[in-house]
Task: structure prediction
Amino acid sequence: MKKRLSSVVIASTVLLGTLTAPMVAMADNYDTQIEQKNSEINDLKTKQSEAQKQIDDLEASVAKINKQANELLEQQKSLREESIQLQKDVEALNERIAKREETIQRQARDVQEKNQSSVYIKALLDADSFSDALGRLKAMTTIVNANNDLVNQQKADKKAVEDKKAENEKKQAEIAANQAKLEEQKGTLEAKQADLNVLKATLAAQQATKESEKEALNAQKAAYEAEQARVRQEQAQVAATRQAAQQASTSQSSSSASSSTGSTSSSNSVSRPTVSTPSTPSTPSTPSTPAPAPSGNGSAIVAEAYKHIGKPYVWGAKGPDTFDCSGFTRYVYLQVTGRDIGGWTVPQESAGTVIPVSQAQPGDLYFWGSRGSTSHVAIAIGGGQYIHAPQPGETVKVGSVAYFAPSFAVRM
Result:
C-alpha cells in the first residue's frame, strides 16, 4: 500500500512538472505578443498623429490660399468699378469736347468770314462818346476772354481724357496681373488639395478595423494618389512652359540687340530720315511652323460650351453648375474628349500647339497674357468670337476678339 502511494505521488509530481513548463512558456508567449501589439498600436498612433499634423498644416495652407484669393477677388471688384467709372468719365469728357469743338470752329469761321478785328475797330470808331467807347471795349474784352476760356477749357479737358485713359490702362494692367496670380494660386491649391486627400485617405485606412472598409479606403487612396500624380505632372508642364517662354524672351532680346547694333552701324554711313510709327502691344511669339489641322471634334466642343451659357462665374469652380475661366474649358474638354487638359491656364497652354489668334478655329483655345503667366482662357467658336466665364458677377457668355482681344491661341 505504501509502495503504491509513493508511486502515485512520484507520478503526480513528474506529471505536474511536465505540464507546468509549457504553461509558463505559453504565458510568456502571450505576454510577448501583447507587448508587440501594444508597440504596434503605439507606433500606429504616432503615425496617425503625424499624419493628422500634416493634414492640419495642409488645411491651414488651403484656408490661407482661399483667403488670399478672396482678398484678390475683392480687389478685382474694386478695380473694375474704378475702371468702369473712368470709362464713363472719358465718355462724358469726349462728349463735352465734341460740343465745345463745334462752338470754337463756328467762332473761328466767323472771324475768317467777317474779319473780326475790323468789326471791333469799327465798333469803337462808331461810338457816340468816350464812355460809349469804353463800354464797347469792355464788352469786346469780355467776349475775347470768354473765347480764350473756352479754348483753355478745351485743352484742359483733352488733357484730362489722356490722364484718365492712362490711369485706366494702369488699372487694367493691375486687373490682368491679379487674374494671373489667381490662376497660379488655383494651381497651388490643386496640388495641396491632392496631397491633403491622399493623407486623409491614408489616415482613414490606418484607423479602419474591418477588412472591407480597408479595401474601399485603399481604393479611394489609390484614386487620390493618381490625382496627386496628375497634379505633379501638371506642375512639371508649367515649369517647362515658363522655361520655354523665358528662353524665347531672352532670344528675342538678343535678336533685338543685334538688330539695333546693325542699325547703328548702318546709320553711321548713310543718313536717313526718321519715321515715327504707332506703338503696338507686344504679343507672345508664335511658331513659324504651319499650324496643325483642326481637330475633328471642334463642333462638338462648341456645342458643349453653348450648353453652359448663363451659368455663374465662381473662382475655383470646375462645374457643372458654376465655373471660372479655366474650370470651364477643362470641363468642356473632359465632357467631349475625356481628356484632362489641366486645372488652370498655364498647364492648358501646354496641352496643344501655339498658333496665331488669326488662325484659331472652333474648338481651339484663346489665351490672354504672356506664356507661362496667362490670366484668362476661352473657347473659340469661329467668326472672331468665343465662349468664356469672364469674371465674378458675370455668367458664361459669348465674347468678341474685336472687343477683348486675346494674346495667342492654342490648337488642341
